[in-house]
Amino acid sequence: MGKKFTVVVTVMALLVGGVSAQQMVRIKDVAALTGIEDVQLFGYGLVVGLAGTGDRSQTIFTEQTVTNMLKNMGIELPEKRLRLRNVASVMVTGTLRPFKRRGTRFDVTVSSMGDATSLEGGTLILTPLQGPDGEVYASGQGPLATGGYDIRDRGMSYVKKNHVLVGRIPDGAIVQQEYTFNLLDGKDISLSLSSPDFTSALQLAETVNNEFSKNSGGIRIARPLDAATVSLDYHLLSRDSVRNYIDLITFISRVENLSFAVASIARVVVNERTGTIVAGGDVKISSVAVTHGGVKIEVKSVPEVIQPPPFSLGRTEVIPNPQVAVEEKEAEMVVLDGTTTVSDLSYALNSLGVSPRDVIAIFQAIKEAGALHAQLMLL
Questions:
Q1: pTM for the full model?
Q2: N or C: which end of the chain has fewer CB within 10 A?
Q3: Are 206 and 254 in contact (CB under 8 A)?
Q4: What are the φ/ψ torsions at residue 254 (nearest 5 degrees)?
C-alpha cells in the first residue's frame, strides 16, 4: 500500500513542483477561431457480409430496411418474414473538419443498433451522412475494421478480443457538400478560449495588441468581449498603410502562434475509485494540523474438521471457526504552516504511510476546515 502511494505522490510532485499560477502557451493550443467549428454527421445504414453474426429475427427494422432497399432495386419479395443472419443495422457517425472540400475523405465509425453479435468482416453499404441541420454532407461505404474477434460454438466455448460491435472505416466517407464557414470573409473574427477566464482573455488581447502595434502606430486590434471571447479587428490593421499590410491568412497564422500567460484556477482533482490525486501548482494550504490513525478489523474463517467417534454412524463435519483480529494504529500528527503546498502535504502524509484513499479523505477534511484554498473536485 505504501509503495502505491509513493508513486502517486511522485506524480503529484512532478506536476506541482516548479509550476506557477500562469504559464506561457500558444494561442492555438487554448483558443479557437469562431466560425470554423467541426460538424458532427450521422446516418443509418446496413452492414452486410457477416458470418451468421448479424441481427436476429427480433430486429424487425433490419428486415424492413432490406425489403425497402431490394424493392428500390426492382426486386419484389413475398410477404413472409425474411431470415437474415448476415446483415446488421448500424449507425454511422463521423466528424467533418473545417475546410474539407468536396471529394475529400474522412474516417467514420460504425456501431451496431440491433442484436448482432459481431460486425467482424462486414461491409457498410452506401450510407448518406447528414448534419444537425438535416442537410446531407457526405456518404460512407467500405469494409469495417473491428480490431478483434468473437468466436463461439455450440459447446459453449467463447473467445473474444476487443469490442466487435463497433468498427471503423478509415477514409470511408466522401464529402458530397461543403459546409459553409463564415471566417474568411474578414467581417467578424474572434478567438474563443476553451477555458473561460477574464484574466486569460485580457492577457490574450494584450499579447495580440503588443505584437501588431509595433509597426502600426499603436493601433489596438484586439478587444476582450467577455471571459471567453476576444474580437480581432483585421480591417483596422489592413487599412493602416500599404507598407504594413498583411493578408488575412498570414494574420491568422501570426496570431495563433503567439504565446501568452494563461491564468488557471486553483484546483485539486481526486478520483476515489482509482486513488488518483492531481493538483495544480497554485494550490495553497493555510496553517493546519493533520492527525492520521485508524483501526483495522479483520475477520478470518479457519475451518475446523470434526471426526465422529470410532465405529459410530456419525459423519465427518467441517464447521467454520471465525477469528477476529483487531489492529489499532498509533495516531500521528503533522503540523503544516501557511506556506505549505500540495507537494509538501503529500510528502508529509507519505511519511505516515497514508493510503491514497485516506489522502482523499484528508483533503476533504482540510477543505471543510477552510485551510485548502482551491476547488476540490471529486470524480
A1: 0.63
A2: C
A3: no
A4: -70, -40
